[in-house]
Write a structure and sequence with these properties.
Blueprint (H helix, E strand, L loop, with lengths): L12 E10 L2 E11 L4 E6 L5 H8 L9 E4 L2 E2 L8 H6 L1 E4 L11 H11 L5 H14 L15 H13 L5 E5 L7 H16 L3 E6 L2 H6 L3 E6 L2 E4 L10
Helix pairs in contact: 4-5, 5-6
Length: 238
Amino acid sequence: MYDFGIIHMESLIHFKDADILNGETVVLYNLDMDIQAGDFVYIVGKVGSGKTSIIRTITAENKLLKGEGMACGYNLRTLKKRDIPYLRRSLGVIFQDFQLLTDRSVESNLEFVLRATGWKDRHDIDKRILEVLEAVGMETKAHKMPHQLSGGEQQRIAIARALLNKPKAILADEPTGNLDGETADEILQLLMDLNREGTAIVMVTHNRAIFEKYPGRVFSCEGEQCHEVVDEGIDVTL
């Protein structure tokens, strides 16, 4: 039996007095954060303020050496290397630059992820691919190559990829950073729709207009600290 380092807490993602690293350097001290199922949370701040380092800690790319940390039931302090893939199957990650495999079709991109995470049955794979493509309005694009898609379409495929294993939370790192305003709005509407269906969304951004137009909880990173902005009158410096 594997020891998955699972701890039982109500929060989907939890940090208490946690120091967040970027490489060997602490970029945020004493982080307190609790994210529940169904939350829509923004992590905001200037470039280099530690926003992405929080995401990388949640996915166990960055080690957590001080404080408490939990993601989807897995203890980030005690999680063994062999168990990291199990944690990551509980999470969906969306990147600014899409990170699609350019040498294969949309369908093959999605199949690659499913097979890499343990799916074997051809019927089940085909069914799940169709489900996630329908969820993002891309069901007619399965046989397209990434270069044949617009930036917005590629990001929709990236969101479909993030949904494949029915994650408890989606972590979106500047998902609209390479998109024009209209397309960015479409992606935000899609994320909002997924959130209303119960998926927690944690979105890193430095674009104030986004979290003003699409309200959610806001954590602001500045001066090696990250705190939730609970008073609407507090200014968020970006």
